[in-house]
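hiii, so i know i said id send this last week but things got crazy w the move. better late than never?? heres the sequnce for the chain we talked about at the cafe, plus the structure i predicted for it. fair warning i was half asleep when i ran it
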Amino acid sequence: MKKSRTGRSLLLMAPLLLFLVGFFVWPLSTMMSESVSDTAVLRLLPRSSEVLRDWDRKSGPTMAMQTALMEDLKAVNDDQALGDMVRRLNSARSGFRTLMSKTTTALADTANPPADLVSIDKRWEKPDFWLAIADALSPLTDRNLLAAVDLGRNADGAIQALPADQSVNRVILVRTFWIAALVTFACACIGFPYAMIAASLTGWKRDLMLAAVLLPLWTSLLVRTAAWFILLQEKGLINDFLQWLRLIDGPLPLIFNRTGVIIAMTHVLLPFMVLPIYSVLITIPKNLMPAAASLGAHPLRAFLRVLLPLSLRGVASGGLLVFISAIGYYITPALIGGPGDQMISSIIAFYATGSANWGMAGALGVVLLAATLVLYSVYARLSAEEPGRR
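okay and structure toks below
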């Protein structure tokens, strides 16, 4: 009997488990494996992989190494795979793109086959190019994860900062967290007074205020962003209204900049700040503020010493929830922001669809996932029920 109940329970949970595996576990595991996977070179150079195991990594290339590489390159019949390998090697050692193009062209000439690689190009004498191949033969790598935070390994294998002309990801990560922090602050400034007013009302007035703040959640994110695109433009409703009131002489720059991004993202994420604060405020006894006033406390002092400390748990939970949601935004900065306002999600999309660099896209995704998990653990801790409280 007990086994049958367990079986029925598992059967009822099966759709949920399949959904979690198909839409969460499998995509995340794929992303993480792509971030450390590096088979672009190994699958095309199997003979070179065996020969390079015995190389001391300091002396020049032996004839066996050159012969193995020539045989591997002659056997390649997939241009896309060859392009992936060349792109991988060129990222490790500049000059590989032209060197490989020259080498493959010479090897394709069956009428005058080259005796060795050095006869094709003198650069094959340099150990640096062979070191790049040897390092790329490992099926696992931390290159993408290090590059995601603008780090890399030198010739000795030590981790060091990338040159300034290659260091862009850290700047974008800092920008992402800064924009998310500004949006969180804006949501807190608007959401806290709004939640206070909603908590102080009763009946249909409270329901109306809560419905107003929940209304954005019932509309598509793309629709909301497109609406702000129309409102914030130079001939949009906001600029026309301000000029009609004669508050400004010309249109304000509200779109394709940081201001527009923060306004649009604040509107979208405001409910995630209001609701946690409201849920805490309604549990605070309403007689505390009158009691503080009866003891001679100024309303502002009573707010700072009584109401605010008791509601900080909701503010912290709402702030973390908004911040976690904001760091992964893509559509709003892409449509409303300018080139200097793009966040890390836009860069991930570029690596995934623009340059087909799945490893780099996965590494940036892992960095973003790690930051999100840390923040979510803090949020879960703050949102957890206090010990002894029911």
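btw Residues 2-36 form the longest helix (35 residues). thought thatd interest u
miss u guys!!
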